[in-house]
Specification:
Elements: H1 3-21, E1 26-28, H2 30-33, E2 38-40, H3 41-57, E3 62-65, E4 77-85, H4 87-91, E5 98-105, E6 108-116, E7 121-126, E8 129-132, E9 135-136, E10 149-152, H5 160-173, E11 179-181, H6 186-194, E12 200-204, H7 208-220, E13 224-225, H8 227-233, E14 235-239, H9 242-251, H10 253-262
Parallel strand pairs: 3-4, 10-11, 10-12
Antiparallel strand pairs: 1-2, 4-5, 5-6, 6-7, 7-8, 8-9, 12-14, 13-14
Helix pairs in contact: 1-3, 5-10, 6-7
Length: 263
């Protein structure tokens, strides 16, 4: 384990005590990042705790964090922090939420951690691979797309047209897969893909603290994704294997692109 990963996992475990024992009441966050998002007292305190611990170890590094430093620029040595990925779940007593962070050098992820505290599951990744509580993990074996579990993000609040497009994905693609799953937290989506619990994850790439740690862990566990679709359309289709990705690209991706061109 690298020095950065050790600092990150220790900081996250420490912050998890704040999260598990802290204030879950939702407070309006509309003035921060838009309507219908919430922040809890625990979000702020956990983020402050993680930032303090990272800064103590690496005082010159840049930290980009959801609640207090969302607009900082990437630097040569940079960290992303999301104190509670899945805050809405957390605020309502739903156990699917996680604390996550990533260390990057020149924009490339080098060490990542996502902790699902209710389940005591610490997912990590470094140059050597992906791990769950210290044990190496890998994505599941390839299976036909019709047998795949596919997770997707929550329905967007950004516009009615966008919500209609998301609903169309469910309607148009449901017959191509086994089942859609909506966990309501990217921290769960990526780690479940990495651990072989689901086969495909589909979402719209948003803020770097949302996707960087999870994508790193999933990739180190063997997951692959369509770079062109992500770069051109901001849509992530991440799969357990190249075989599943190729079928998804041939079956699902054309529908996604068509749907969002209509939105």
């Amino acid at each position: 384990m690298t020095g950065e990963l050790k600092v990150l996992t220790d900081a996250i475990r420490k912050a998890s005590e704040i999260v598990l024992n802290g204030d879950r009441s939702a407070k309006d966050k509309s003035t921060v990042i838009g309507m219908y998002d919430v922040v809890t007292g625990s979000d702020i305190l956990a983020e402050q705790s993680i930032i303090k611990d990272i800064t103590a170890a690496f005082p010159e590094d840049t930290i980009i964090s959801e609640e207090t430093n969302p607009d900082k620029e990437l630097s040569e040595r940079c960290w992303t922090i999301d104190p509670i990925g899945g805050t809405m779940n957390y605020s309502r007593g739903i156990p699917f939420f996680g604390i996550q962070g990533c260390f990057m050098e020149n924009g490339e992820a080098k060490a990542s951690a996502i902790y699902l505290p209710v389940f005591d599951e610490m997912f990590t990744a470094d140059e050597n691979g992906a791990y769950l509580n210290g044990e190496r993990i890998h994505t599941c074996e390839p299976r036909p797309l019709k047998q795949c579990l596919v997770s997707t993000g929550d329905f967007s609040r950004r516009s009615q047209e966008f919500r209609d497009a998301q609903a169309a994905i469910f309607h148009d693609c449901y017959s191509d897969i086994a089942r859609f799953k909506v966990f309501g937290a990217s921290s769960v989506d990526y780690t479940y893909l990495a651990a072989g619990r689901i086969d495909v994850h589909v979402r719209f790439l948003n803020k770097i603290w949302d996707f960087k740690p999870g994508m790193h862990i999933a990739e180190k566990a063997g997951a692959v994704y369509d770079h062109g679709l992500a770069d051109e359309h901001g849509i992530l289709v991440m799969c357990s294997s190249q075989e599943v990705l190729e079928e998804a690209v041939g079956t699902l991706v054309p529908k996604f692109i068509s749907i969002f061109r209509r939105a």
